[in-house]
Design brief:
By secondary structure, the chain is α+β, with helices and mostly antiparallel strands. It contains 15 helices and 36 strands. 26% of the residues lie in helices and 30% in strands. Strands 11, 12, 16, 17, 18, 19, 22, 23, 24 and 25 form a 10-stranded mixed sheet that branches. Strands 1, 3, 6, 8, 9, 14 and 15 form a 7-stranded mixed sheet that branches. Strands 5-4-7-2-10-13 form a 6-stranded antiparallel sheet. The radius of gyration is 27 Å and the shape is globular. The structure holds beta-D-glucopyranose. The site of beta-D-glucopyranose has 9 residues, from α4.
């Protein structure tokens, strides 16, 4: 839409204080309809006559701001009165917070010094047919708000006693209007409320509130206080081995709120920031804190739950829950690595690792489409994809398996949801990424050179390194092949001539096989097979299985190998070893963290070590969804719900369960674009009962039998012999 509005910002405001903008007007006739269009450089909270205009939180959301800034449209017809006041408070949000927290750069200081401002219009249509528009310009006023400070990493300071008295003229300023786009992603909202379970007094003498669940959002509290008393709380994820509050892993992110009370009983939560936490330490709190005074408000993007997993082992159900909470905690407008420390960035590698599981757990089509538009918008002139999207580190070179998100994510969304538009929208970006590798490599048909994260956090990492032992150019070259292959498939779906890329792909596979005849790590075996590069996949997986057994039936893979290792083992006759890894509860394993009381997925297999100490504070998040990718193996292999490439969106489905007695029973279902599919198996003595329910055509594979199942059927097989 064409705006008449001007960008406005505040004048004469104390540094750091959040401005509030105001427009007042009278309505003297019957109103038929009224809309507010609004956006901000920062995050805003808008109120009409004292009431929030909507339940959208942290508007206008997070996009590649240099190119794309969403505006929102709110129907305010019912909110109008004879005398009206619109106020809009603006915090730094993602727009001008010091992100990332650990490094200085030109781009970061540019962002931190960007002006906070708003642009908006109120459109009123009266019953008599006349229309009126109030657009932001210098006739709007502005002043200091009670939000004395607000920022993504450090938190918020709010003075409950403060009333804005000094209003002055807002200042018009120049900022692009070409970047404005209507709301594209799902809305960000308060989604759930988690009551505090306990108030703990730690051995160190701290008062700590425990919500029993790691969440992303903020704390709402109620307090009876005298004016000037303070609530000061710091957010944390875990207690240390002595039971004391631990905050070092937030690094430079203060993650605190400070609230100066007014007189009386008052309930408050911040509105322009968010935190990742399970605990809050009360540095100051009027009176004796009781659990019923605190509620954690869970904030994330709207996404409908579609996938359900349940089984006969309590710890595994807890793992499923942790995976879902990891997704909820990191799907706040952008898929982020973590919600707590001084990152909270759209790390591309993490997103591609988790996208498949994410797309089964929830309907994330709209969420990812918006993010992929940002990825394309931020893609550099030479096709390079930022390490994080929005690209807050344009000085850094892209890494293999991270930049490949440009290809892997759209392809997966297409498969899960069957919507070709996603491929059509992203095709140019996908192609530019593959071309980037082709132009960047120091050796044709492989990806050599460059800076890579390797098999990030793999347990075979040489001491002192975060990168697993797998060769970086091996990983880079294998992803080059994989992305090229997916690009060809995408091009064929869209009807493009992909002949040149087929030749390229052929050369890559040939060069790969020649250069890497041997595989030395778990991840190298896994990638060679999963990406179709191994000359003899069966032999390779047999060797992988032996290696895993030699390694003590332990997983050694990092971000790159973990999502696929159980798949390749199961696919090539070693499902028993896949199950061993999945059900292992000793360190290192998925269930190890569950045994340590985790309520979300950890960044490190050993976030808390066997002796109770922590992995070093400089890189230790307890809410990193990446290893939660194992959920896609549970849907696809354990329960056997296979997404067929020739039937995207689950137009047809193959169900080939791979049960294991140790789990007792497993129940999995996905609400797909073509209806629901569910698969259930249950051990009864030494026999198994299988049940499937499908709303689309299916072929069920049990042992050597292939059974065609009609849409709308419920079928079971009882007492199948093992
Ligand atoms: C992030 C990761 C990310 C990685 C890249 C970390 O700091 O938290 O999840 O993918 O850096 O190496």
């Amino acid at each position: 839409m064409e705006f008449q509005a001007k960008w406005i910002r505040s004048q004469n405001i104390e540094e750091g204080v959040c401005p509030v903008f105001r427009r007042t007007w009278a309505v003297d006739r019957a109103v038929k309809h009224a809309d507010l269009y609004l956006t901000a450089l920062g995050v805003y909270e808008a109120r009409m006559n004292g009431v929030r205009v909507s339940d959208y939180v942290l508007a206008p959301g997070w996009t590649a701001y240099k190119k794309r800034l969403q505006y929102q449209q709110y129907d305010i017809t019912e909110m109008l009165e004879a005398e009206n006041e619109l106020t809009v408070t603006v915090g730094k949000g993602w727009f001008s917070s010091p992100m990332p927290g650990w490094a200085e750069s030109e781009d970061k200081s540019r962002r931190m010094h960007q002006p906070k401002g708003i642009l908006g219009e109120i459109h009123i249509t009266y019953e008599d047919g006349q229309t009126e528009i109030f657009a932001t310009d210098s006739s709007w006023s502005c002043g200091e708000s009670p939000v004395r400070f607000s920022e993504i990493y450090d938190g918020e300071v709010f003075d409950g006693r403060f009333e804005t008295m000094d209003w002055c003229e807002a200042e018009e300023f120049e900022w692009s209007e070409d970047i404005l786009i209507p709301q594209e992603g799902p809305w960000i909202r308060e989604q759930e409320r988690v009551s505090a379970q306990n108030v703990i007094y730690t051995p160190a003498g701290e008062t700590v509130v425990d919500f029993g669940q790691e969440v992303t959002g903020y704390v709402e509290f109620t307090v009876d206080a005298q004016a000037g008393e303070e609530v000061w709380m710091v957010h944390g994820e875990v207690l240390d081995s002595n039971g004391n509050f631990y905050h070092d892993n937030y690094r430079s992110a203060k993650s605190e709120i400070r609230y100066i009370c007014r007189d009386g009983v008052q309930t408050w939560h911040p509105v322009l920031t968010f935190f990742g936490f399970r605990y809050v330490k009360l540095e100051k709190f009027p009176g004796v804190a009781k659990p019923e005074q605190f509620t954690a408000v869970v904030v994330h993007s709207d996404m409908k739950r579609t996938g359900y997993l349940r089984c006969g082992v309590r710890e595994v159900n807890q793992l499923f829950s942790n995976i879902l909470w990891g997704q909820k905690g990191n799907f706040l407008d952008v898929p982020t690595d973590c919600p707590q420390r001084d990152e909270r960035l759209g790390w591309t590698g993490d997103a591609q690792v988790f996208v498949k599981a994410a797309s089964y757990n929830y309907d994330v089509e709209r969420f990812f489409r918006k993010w992929l538009h940002d990825l394309a918008a931020d893609q550099r002139a030479n096709g390079a994809v930022g390490q994080v999207i929005p690209d807050y580190m344009p000085e850094e070179k892209p890494s293999a398996a991270w930049g490949d998100a440009a290809v892997i994510c759209p392809w997966q969304l297409y498969l899960t949801y069957g919507n070709r538009d996603i491929l059509a929208e992203q095709f140019g970006s996908m192609k530019r990424w593959v071309d980037y590798i082709t132009s960047e490599t120091t050796e044709q048909y492989l990806w050599k050179g460059g800076v890579h994260f390797g098999d990030w956090l793999g347990l075979d990492a040489p001491s002192g390194s975060y990168k697993g032992a797998s060769r970086e150019d091996f990983i880079a070259s294998s992803f080059y092949a994989h992305s090229t292959e997916l690009l060809i498939k995408a091009g064929e779906v869209l009807g493009h001539d992909m002949a040149d890329y087929k030749v390229l792909y052929h050369h890559i596979v040939e060069a790969f096989r020649k250069s890497y005849p041997e595989y030395f790590t778990q991840t190298e075996h896994v990638l060679a097979v999963y990406f179709g590069l191994a000359q003899d996949p069966q032999k390779t997986v047999d060797a992988l299985a032996e290696m895993v057994v030699r390694d003590g039936r332990q997983i050694k893979t990092g971000f790159v190998g973990t999502p696929y290792i159980l798949h390749v083992l199961s696919e090539y006759g070693h499902a028993d070893i896949a199950w061993d890894l999945f059900l292992r509860s000793d360190y290192p394993s998925w269930l190890y963290s569950v045994g340590c009381g985790a309520t979300t997925i950890w960044e490190h297999w050993d976030g808390i070590m066997v002796d109770g100490s922590f992995w070093s504070a400089d890189m230790n998040s307890y809410n990193h969804y990446a290893y939660g990718a194992v959920a896609d193996w549970v849907y696809e292999k354990a329960a056997g719900i296979c997404l067929l490439e020739e039937a995207p969106g689950f137009e047809k489905v193959k169900i080939r369960p791979m049960p294991d007695k140790r789990l007792g029973w497993l129940d999995a279902s996905i609400d797909t674009r073509h209806g629901k599919v569910s698969s259930r198996w249950c051990y009864m003595e030494d026999k198994i009962r299988y049940e499937v329910m499908v709303e689309m055509p299916a072929v069920v594979v049990i042992g050597r039998r292939e059974i065609q199942v009609q849409p709308g059927s419920y079928v079971f097989w009882d007492g199948v012999n093992l």
